[in-house]
Amino acid sequence: MNMRTIDRKDSDFYRYGHPRHLCRNNGGSFSKGFFWGAVIGGILGVLFAPEKGEGTRKKIKEKAKDYEEKGKEALEKASEELEKARIKYEEAAKKVGPVIEKAKEKIEEVKVKSEPYVEFAKEKASEVKEFIQENKDPIEDTLKDLANEILDEGKLIKKRYFKGTRKR
C-alpha cells in the first residue's frame, strides 16, 4: 500500500457523498465548538444588548438570584425524596431479612433431605459406568456388525435401482 492509495481512501472519506462524511474528526471536538460558540454568543449578546451595562448587570444579578433560589429548592426537594427513599429501603430491608433467613434454612433442609438420594444416584451411575465398561466390546462389535449389514443392504438396493444404467 503506498501513499497514493491512502490519500485516495482519505479523499473518499471526506467526499460529501460518503456515508460518514459528517462523522469525521478534523482535530476539533464538539465540546470545543460548544465552548467557543457560547463565548462568542455571550460577547455578541452584551455588545448588542438594548440596555446599558448597568441595567444588564442588574438583570443578570436578578436572574442569578432566581436560579440560586430554584437550585436551593430543587436541592431541598431532592434531599427530602432521598430521605423518603432511604426510609423505604430500610423498611424493606427489615421485611426481607427474615424471609432470606427462612429461605437459607429451607435450602439447608433440602440439602440434608436430598443427600441420600444424591448418594444413591452416584452409586447407580458408577454401577452403570462399570457395566458399560465391562460390556463395551460386545456392544461395540454388535454395532459394527449392524452397520456393516446396513451398508451391504444399501449397496444391494443401489445395484437394483441403477441396474441397466451406464456410468458416464
What secondary-structure arrangement, pairings included, does this model have?
Layout (H helix, E strand, L loop, with lengths): L2 H12 L15 H18 L5 H82 L1 H26 L7
Question: Distance between the terminal alpha carbons, to the nearest Å?
Answer: 50 Å
Number of DSSP helical runs: 4
Shape descriptor reads elongated
Enumerate the spans where pLDDT stays under 50 for 5 or more consecutive residues. none
Give the overall pLDDT as a whole number: 80
Percent helix = over 70%
User: Radius of gyration, Cα only, in angstroms?
Assistant: 42 Å
Short synopsis of the structure:
The protein has helices at residues 3-14, 30-47, 53-134, 136-161. The chain is mainly α and 168 residues long.
Structure description:
By secondary structure, the protein is mainly alpha-helical. Among the domains are: 52-124; 135-168. The chain is 82% helix and 0% strand. It has four helices and no strands. It has helices at 3-14, 30-47, 53-134, 136-161. The protein is elongated and about 110 Å long. The model has no long low-confidence stretch (mean pLDDT 80).
Main attributes of the structure:
168 residues, mainly alpha, 0% strand
